[in-house]
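Message: I would love a firmer grasp of how sequence relates to backbone shape in proteins. Thank you; the sequence and its tokens follow:
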Amino acid sequence: MMPTSWTRVGSWTWLLREEAAGNRGMLGNAMDTITKKDLVDRIAESTGTRRVLVKKIVQSFLDEIIAELGNGNRLEFRDFGVFEIRSRAPRVARNPKTMEEVQVPRKRTVKFKIGRLMKERLFGSEQDRITASSGQS
């Protein structure tokens, strides 16, 4: 039998979480989903600002990102990363059920390139990787 625990998700919602195997992230840790509400709550608590104001600011920030990407602009946040629009070429795909060829039109997608600071925090610095791969301490 797998060990389980109850975790509070919202003010009225509880989530039954399995402690064993379950979902694992890239780093081997259990991966939780953090929502916009969770971030707003954290920011409001850490800054002592009213939640309503923080929610408006966060939503305005996200709206601006969407608007700028919609205008075809590239967004660069130093050490965090870069958002940009990429265009995928039209192509021919195949319906796996009928094996019929299907024309897939050109489409735009958002690409995110991870920044230096985020890369170091998530994966360690270049020197850490070199040391680890050479077997040194």
Remarks:
- The radius of gyration is 21 Å.
- Confidence is low (pLDDT under 50) at residues 10-25.
- DSSP finds four helices and seven strands in the chain.
